[in-house]
Amino acid sequence: MAYQVLARKYRPQTFEEVVRQDHITRTLTNAVASGRLAHAILFAGPRGTGKTTVARILAKCVNCESGPTPTPCNACRSCTEIRDSHATDVFEIDGASNNKVEHIRELRENARYMPAHSPYKIYIVDEVHMLSDAAFNALLKILEEPPAHVMFFFATTEPNKIPITILSRCQRHDFRRVEIDALIDHMASMCRKEGVDLNEEGLSLIAREADGSVRDALSLLDHIMACALDSLDTQAILDVLGGIDRRDLFAISEAVLQGKTDTVLDRIDSCYRRGQHMTKLFAEIVSHFRNLLVVKMGGGADTLADIPKHEIQAIQEQVTDVPATHLNQILDVLFKEEVTLKYSNQPKLALEMAFLRILQIKPALSFDTLIEKLDLLRHEFHNSGAQAQAEFSRPDSPDPSPDPSPEAEKAATPSEKPSEPTDETERLQAADETEKKSAADTEGQGRRAPEENNAEGAPAPESVPETPEEHWQCILKTVSETQPSLGACLAEGRIKGIGDDQIEVEMPPNQFHMNWVCRDKNREILEKVCCQHFNRKMKISITGRKPQPTANSHTDKKEAQRLKQEALNHPMVEAAMKLFQGKIVDVKIL
């Protein structure tokens, strides 16, 4: 017997063997079991995902001797004939070669006769979108009201080309591309059955080339297995498929992020000498940087583009210390250079120039980081200014005050004047003693009763805030000391109400202020300050203030109407309309 390829040898014979189309097989299983199977079913989806295979399995479920049943026996006459593609009552028609109206008329004539030995006469039309308009029109009547013993199963890769009149008469099922991990597992089971040793990295290369098609994956696996009798390494698979080594992508991205120009150019030159197509390499690089950005922004494994499990950890490690803004910059340049690379006569040179432009870009800071750095810089300047002022007011610093009057000099006798230290160390010690004495005097004065302070003319202690406005000013002062940018935004707002455990803050009708204050980090800072101010747990409710209408809005409207009318009556406007034979669409006041 001639060699049978893997796609035919291991073709699924039951719904359980179909790879990753559970949403369709489950629906059809329930329909057959409950007796609610439609007479016309359309299977749509990418190539090699199991459309014709599922149609054959469904035909076996309907015509099985023990059926209709969702699990055909695969042993009776109908099941074996359908499996071997020579069933008497199941007709597989190629829509590309039987697309004329005469073929559909012949199908309608044959459909009137009863099946030979099966319960139903089934027509499986592959690539049904290739039928002509006249053929579709000839199919309409029998498709809407078929004989009781006839069923139609259609398969297509382009359902958008099928007339809506046909689609409305069919029950549609959309197939999906198979995930790369499912393809790897499926091919691994084929390798075990065939006794071939192929590692996971090699299978992932085949699965990526298959692009979600099970048939393409098995065809490529057949091609690889023909190159060796027992085992294959990754390099041999790359040589056979002509694919791009994933290690080159990681090496190029790592070199770009570290600014190593020579490594980037060497890797591109190596891929070029191995015969890699530069446009395909560029597409893979763009997809790789997209995955890096998704992982950096917290995306899960299900959001990555055809990435096997063993590469996700490597991607996470590569973007650990890389800001998301830098990855955005790289992707912006790559997308701008896509058209240049596509139409260039020297794609290798265009690809190298794209990366040279990327390597000249300095990583940009995010907006939040920039605001934090500005706040930190302002805080440092504030501290340095306060420190300079403190040093200027030290006792050992030159006294900027004017010379004392002669009366003051006479008042101080030589015996009362302290002796000036001659050594610098003694001068510093004297200054420290003076500061300590001053601090002790201040502490003693602070312990006196408020009445004594007021009696002596000392300033009264700060009053406790009572009104919402006073509370708001205290909160603003505390926030502005650590977060000046947040304090500037909050200065535009006000406290609308204070409850037992909630504060309602009203912000102006400015979207920038609202967005900045409502950020999680800034909201936490405001809540923390409010809790400390009121000495209890408080929640923040932020609302927007409605814009107030101006008092003279009616007057402004009248003035605008008058100006528009003057413009319409202007002789220059009338002359322009006559000259160009135009009409006035709108009048705007500048």
Report on the structure:
With 590 residues, this protein is α/β, with parallel strands linked by helices. It folds into five domains: 6-174, P-loop containing nucleotide triphosphate hydrolases (Rossmann fold, 3-Layer(aba) Sandwich), CATH 3.40.50; 180-241, Helicase, Ruva Protein, domain 3 (Orthogonal Bundle); 246-359, Zinc Finger, Delta Prime, domain 3 (Up-down Bundle); 468-544, GMP Synthetase, Chain A, domain 3; 559-590, no CATH class. It is 56% helix and 8% strand. It has helices spanning 6-9, 22-34, 51-63, 77-83, 101-111, 133-144, 164-167, 180-194, 200-210, 214-225, 234-241, 246-258, 261-273, 278-296, 309-318, 324-336, 338-342, 347-359, 367-392, 406-411, 424-446, 450-456, 468-482, 484-490, 511-517, 520-534, 553-568, 571-580; strands at 40-44, 90-94, 121-126, 150-156, 171-174, 197-198, 231-232, 494-498, 502-507, 539-544. A five-stranded parallel beta sheet has the order 2-3-4-1-5, covered by helices on one side. A three-stranded mixed beta sheet has the order 8-9-10. The chain has a two-stranded parallel sheet with strand order 6-7. Strand 2 (90-94), helix 5 and strand 3 (121-126) form a beta-alpha-beta unit. Helix 9 (200-210) packs parallel to helix 11. The termini are far apart. The model is unreliable at 397-425 and 442-461 (pLDDT under 50).
